[in-house]
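Structural biology now treats backbone shape like a language. To illustrate, our science desk offers a sequence and the tokens encoding its fold:
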Amino acid sequence: MKSTDVPHELRAFNALFCEAEHGWNYSSFFSDFVEFLTESFMPQRVGTYERLKSHYGDLDRFVKLTHELLRLQQSQIVTDTSWYDGLGSYYECLTSRGKSQLLGQYFTPEHLCDMMVRLQGCSESLKGKRLKVSDPASGSGRMLLAFHALAPGNYHFAADLDPICARMTAVNMAMHGCEGEAVCMDSLKWEWRFGYRINRLLPQIGSPSIEVIQPEDSYLFRTLQEESKPEPAKAKTAPTPTPTAPKEPQTVAQILQNGQFVLF
């Protein structure tokens, strides 16, 4: 990709990416890089390194890109309330090339994310309150990053139907110190694909972490299931109630809206 097609701060990353891209489909390579990053934060490996090494011959290109991404993150986060989504920004650059069905989303600009979380009532006064904050269509996780930068110390839930976006969100949350969950699922139909617990070990070991979870391990998914259970039948001696319309299933936003934050 031409350096003029990417933001100035991403040009060194782009040069490495294009150097490594030769012979590979760029969208598949980016997806593999995000999977590599995800496993890099895992205390227990899940086989991604082995698969990528078998396919590409070595992991050197992924290691170089990871070092550059971490350097970039450090250079862009300059204050206590700063955040930076280098992965999402580069994803959008690749999307603009318009040659692959694997990529195809654009995310809310950073300054709008900052404005929107403030409009939702986020402020520094919420720091450390352990509130539950949800984004049922997280993209690369920008809304949650903006909330966390302004009011750290809360618990974040991210969901997205796109596997690449769910993993980008997990990595972004890990790098920014957000605690919570990042899940690949349909937030309307509650169809689970995979999920991660983010930074559970951060207070104990001081290092970011991403752990694979199953539906029964997910607070968000368990809450959805509880809310979807039909009400128990009343005793036969009870008066026959007036027929009412069946209760409509709730969305993620509705479930987490009572006294909590939903960024959607």
